[in-house]
């Protein structure tokens, strides 16, 4: 048993790290302030093949695996969580559902385009009253003359309103049945909506606490017509089919968390060695060194947890609990490290241009997105036999 | 067309760089050795021409075993093959040795054009391209910010304090580029996979028919004979003003020949 990276995995990780340090990091503050996505950087990531890592070559992918995607996401998140989540959500939530559940025709149409990074896609599940509890979905889709007619609204949809967004997969209620006990069961179905589309409105971006560079919008669907053939997967299996996608997504999200925690540590170590107060480097004070030691322990644990979840998944074993553990402790490591890092930087840690300040704002969402910490605890508790 | 790009692995400029106090040479055992940025840019110039015309691009380095990592990086970026001149006898080689060995390796491979950076970030000699050109008896266009390669000619621009010079040379020729030349591409994942299968040849001095004893002789090479550490700084002189500080200060400056 080993968590040692193969030479190819190590080379990929090193290349993405180099790219992150030389291209992404210098632009991070500017785009965070402008609150816009740097399309040139996304294009370069596409050229490097990052959006196609886990897909086979016949669909325009790189023929690698999900773990490689995790390594790339981790390295990007060290310097810019927004860029990392654009990749993570673009692949995990945007492309993966089409690749896993699409017909051959749908896969041929969408996967090569999206895997090239020339276009982005999004997954529209969350609504005002539906998130982890997908049964609250109010968006509807009805078949009319060979078209799905979709009405409703979605919330917090990553990559849904960029200049290069070409596909949004939405979940919608397509009917309902009555259970034997008399309760109503909604039939939830996933449908591909190529964008732009008549009646499909991207509402203004959210005023978020962090992740300013990442594109996140509410969506309005008002009589949006798409062909019946745009049904993704089976009718009525719109949520069940994507639970696996969401579980996988948690692992890449956990890699993002580990990267963020590492970024906070890297900045802090550098500063603790170079910042002199009272005639010596602040790192020579035990209270700073111990803080850094704790940060390192958190990064190490977070990384091992996501490696373990990813390798469990790739080996074909059940990984739901492992993914939840990795996501939960990773997000807590990032949040805790961001807090410690800003403390080590003192007043400079409160300046927006400081990367650790950005990590501080960005990291909160790590405990919320892709299933809150409480949802992860539910999953872990269920693995212990509790109906949490 | 066959283009040879000279590349060099150097200590990361962000890290601590130190000299080995025993030999006076750069300590290359430091952990963060990376490909010199100017080497990346040189390769980018060659790869752009390859993208357009399908030219063959070979990367060449002379360096310790660790330099193979830099060559693999170049192969991942898109170079077709790599040549590594590796020989213990070359440790501490100066520019004279280095240029003659590189010229021998270039001749060994055959070439239409050689592209190099104008100077490395570690040695900063800035003379290797010119010396290699002399060994090869080919024209040398130095310090170009732009390079345009045609079938049998290379044109370029050189920025100077007085203006921009447009220069040209018939091939075969050697050009050196400055950091104004375009940013290098990042290797793609497919490039990384392909790099593993591309040829990387290692040549020793005997492969190049060079006998270090006779070929270089005892002259024409600079060697470090002794190394003395810079003395530690001592406490300075503190002048407390008790009425004649101005005179004392002037005397101090005069004694030290500062004025």
UniProtKB/TrEMBL annotation, chain A:
Keywords: FAD, Flavoprotein, Oxidoreductase. InterPro entries: Acyl-CoA_DH_CS, Acyl-CoA_Oxase/DH_mid-dom, Acyl-CoA_Oxase/DH_mid-dom_sf, AcylCo_DH-like_C, AcylCo_DH/oxidase_C, AcylCoA_DH/ox_N, AcylCoA_DH/ox_N_sf, AcylCoA_DH/oxidase_NM_dom_sf. Residues 6-118 form the Acyl-CoA dehydrogenase/oxidase N-terminal domain. It comes from the Bacteria. GO terms for molecular function: acyl-CoA dehydrogenase activity; flavin adenine dinucleotide binding. Residues 122-224 form the Acyl-CoA oxidase/dehydrogenase middle domain. Pfam families: Acyl-CoA_dh_1 (PF00441), Acyl-CoA_dh_M (PF02770), Acyl-CoA_dh_N (PF02771). Residues 236-384 form the Acyl-CoA dehydrogenase/oxidase C-terminal domain. Gene3D superfamilies: Acyl-CoA dehydrogenase/oxidase, N-terminal domain (1.10.540.10), Butyryl-CoA Dehydrogenase, subunit A, domain 2 (2.40.110.10), Butyryl-CoA Dehydrogenase, subunit A, domain 3 (1.20.140.10). PANTHER family: ACYL-COA DEHYDROGENASE, ISOVALERYL-COA DEHYDROGENASE, MITOCHONDRIAL-RELATED. This is Acyl-CoA dehydrogenase. It comes from Cryobacterium gelidum.
From TrEMBL, chain B:
CDD domains: ETF_beta. InterPro entries: ETF_a/b_N (IPR014730), ETF_b (IPR012255), ETF_beta_N (IPR033948), Rossmann-like_a/b/a_fold (IPR014729). The keyword Oxidoreductase does not apply. Transmembrane segments: none annotated. SUPFAM superfamilies: Adenine nucleotide alpha hydrolases-like. Keywords: Electron transport, Transport. Belongs to the ETF beta-subunit/FixA family. This is Electron transfer flavoprotein subunit beta. It comes from Cryobacterium gelidum.
């Amino acid at each position: 048993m080993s968590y040692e990276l193969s030479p190819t995995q190590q080379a990929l990780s090193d290349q993405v790290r180099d790219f992150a340090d030389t291209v992404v990091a210098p632009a991070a503050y500017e785009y965070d302030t402008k609150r816009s996505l740097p399309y040139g950087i996304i294009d370069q990531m596409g050229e490097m093949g990052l959006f196609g890592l886990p897909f086979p070559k016949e669909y325009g992918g790189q023929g690698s695996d999900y773990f490689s995607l995790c390594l790339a996401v981790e390295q990007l998140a060290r310097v810019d969580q927004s860029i990392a989540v654009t990749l993570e959500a673009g692949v995990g939530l945007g492309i993966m559902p089409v690749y896993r559940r699409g017909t051959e025709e749908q896969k041929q149409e969408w996967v090569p385009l999206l895997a090239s990074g020339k276009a982005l896609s999004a997954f529209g599940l969350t609504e005002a009253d539906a998130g982890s509890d997908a049964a609250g979905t109010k968006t509807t889709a009805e078949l009319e003359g060979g078209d799905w007619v979709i009405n409703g609204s979605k919330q917090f949809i990553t990559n849904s309103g960029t200049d290069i967004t070409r596909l949004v997969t939405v979940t919608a209620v397509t009917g309902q049945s009555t259970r034997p006990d008399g309760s109503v069961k909604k039939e939830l179905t996933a449908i591909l909506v190529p964008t732009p589309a008549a009646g499909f409105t991207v509402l203004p971006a959210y005023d978020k606490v962090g992740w300013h560079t990442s594109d996140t919008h509410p969506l309005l669907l008002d009589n949006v017509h798409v062909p019946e053939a745009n049904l993704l997967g089976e009718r009525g299996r719109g949520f069940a089919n994507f639970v696996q996608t969401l579980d996988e997504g948690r692992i890449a999200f956990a890699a993002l968390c580990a990267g963020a925690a590492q970024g906070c540590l890297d900045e802090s170590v550098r500063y603790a060695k170079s910042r002199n107060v009272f005639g010596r480097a602040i790192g020579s004070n035990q209270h700073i060194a111990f803080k850094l030691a704790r940060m390192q322990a958190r990064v190490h644990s977070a990384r091992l947890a996501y490696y373990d979840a990813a390798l469990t998944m790739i080996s074909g074993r059940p990984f739901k609990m492992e993914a939840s553990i990795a996501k939960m402790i990773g997000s807590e490591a990032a949040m805790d490290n961001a807090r410690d890092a800003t403390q080590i930087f003192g007043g400079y840690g409160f300046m927006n241009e400081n990367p650790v300040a950005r990590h501080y704002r960005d990291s909160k969402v790590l405990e919320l997105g892709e299933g809150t910490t409480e949802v992860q605890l539910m999953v872990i508790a269920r693995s212990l036999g509790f109906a949490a | 067309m066959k283009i040879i790009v000279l590349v060099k692995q150097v200590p990361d400029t962000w890290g601590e760089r130190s000299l080995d106090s025993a030999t006076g040479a750069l300590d290359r055992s430091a952990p963060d050795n990376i490909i010199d940025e100017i080497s990346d840019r040189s390769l980018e110039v060659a790869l752009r021409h390859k993208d357009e015309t399908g030219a063959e691009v070979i990367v060449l380095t002379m360096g310790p075993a660790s330099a193979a990592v830099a060559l693999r990086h170049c192969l991942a970026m898109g170079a077709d093959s790599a040549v590594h001149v590796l020989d213990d006898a070359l440790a501490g080689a100066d520019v004279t040795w280095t240029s003659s060995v590189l010229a021998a390796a270039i001749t060994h491979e055959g070439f239409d054009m050689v592209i190099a950076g104008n100077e490395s970030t570690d040695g900063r000699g800035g003379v290797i391209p010119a010396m290699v050109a002399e060994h090869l008896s080919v024209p040398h266009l130095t310090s170009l910010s732009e390079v345009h390669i045609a079938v049998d000619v290379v044109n370029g621009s050189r920025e100077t304090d007085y203006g921009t010079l447009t220069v040209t040379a018939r091939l075969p020729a050697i050009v050196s580029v400055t950091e104004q030349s375009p940013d290098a591409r990042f290797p793609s994942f497919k490039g990384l996979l392909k790099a593993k299968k591309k040829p990387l040849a290692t040549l020793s001095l005997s492969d190049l028919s060079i006998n270090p004893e006779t070929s270089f002789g005892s002259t024409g090479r600079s060697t470090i004979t002794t190394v003395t550490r810079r003395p530690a700084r001592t406490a300075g002189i503190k002048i407390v003003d008790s009425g004649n500080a101005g005179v004392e200060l002037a005397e101090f400056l005069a004694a030290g020949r500062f004025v």
